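Input record (one chain):
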Amino acid sequence: MSDTARGFVAQMRHRGGRGDRSPLGTWFWDIDRMLLLLTMFLIAIGLIAVAAASPATAVRYSGEHLKLAPLHYFWRQLIWVAVSLPVLIGVSMLPVATARRMALAGTAVLAALLALTPFIGVEHNGARRWISVIVAEFQPSEFLKPVFIVTVAWLLSLKAKDPELPTVWITGAMTAFVAAMLMLQPDFGQTVIFCSVWLALLMIAGTPMRVMAGLIALAPAALVAAYFFYGTARSRIDAFLFPDVEGEGAGDHFQTDAAHHTITSGGWTGTGPGGGTAKFGLPEAHTDYIFSVIGEEFGLIACSVIAVVFLAIVVRVFVKLLDEQDEFKLLAASGLAVQFGAQALVSMAVNTGLAPSKGMTLPFISYGGSSMIALSIGMGMLLAFTRRNPFLTRSPYVVRWGGE
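The corresponding structure, as predicted from the sequence alone:
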């Protein structure tokens, strides 16, 4: 090693910066710290939003034999955040190969649980989406999303090694199976997310345009078929397109109307923390319609800032992937970013009345243990797949003596 190189290493160690090659130090310098910071910002906003929505939800679910404290859901969410943060950081520290193997195993287990959910699941609001385990309930579809995306990305990446592999049809069959199981619950919103991410991954993987054109052309046909043969889709579409018609979907129309009224009642700057009253008329104010609560108490400006943060996370990921050479990492990170952005977009669209009610949580902001932990796993994987080592890639000395 030259004297110059020794001096460089000594200086870095003296600073306690990039010279710290401990596991934690390596992780800190390899990770996309801006992406992590934006995620922490969303989690912090989520705690504030759940605290704002908690009193309305506590009133709605309190009864003669059950009196919930005004901040009941906030304290529970704080526990879920405390559980989720170590999960996020732990997953983000995994080597890529380990994260991939974990995703493959998780997909097999969770797909089996998803298939059982319509038959053994716990029913809430007319849907069986949760499985009861001892004293808690979890939603298999939430946990399946990130690992399924990584599995599909891995299968599509194999085509680069063997062009003859029918990866489009294999992943299409997997997606169709998941969609069928979700529709049995029923969960139309999650079905849309899984199918949309699959199509996005096919496009990013370089699937021939004739195949993509055929699949995209099938989308309107699938929507029409869902309208005529799938009651949940029909009721939600009717309520959205024909709000003045009484029928099965009238409840959905009430929800979107209540959400729109709540989100606009605070104006640009909001009524202030705890000052909202329209939120007390919201169903599921702490989960599906938390974006409306933010609009009422913190204003449309705050809603715009949150939307920009979601956009910044997605854009940040794709900018980092511009020079990514590993096909699997490119597809896995892209798919996770698309899923994250699509879920946020659908949730905000429902709250603003631009889409039918779908029961979609706002990532890292809505209340819920399954959602928070599953999103932490997904973001942890995203951070793992976008992790770069600036010490190895930017230091000219390491190129010369890195093998020593």
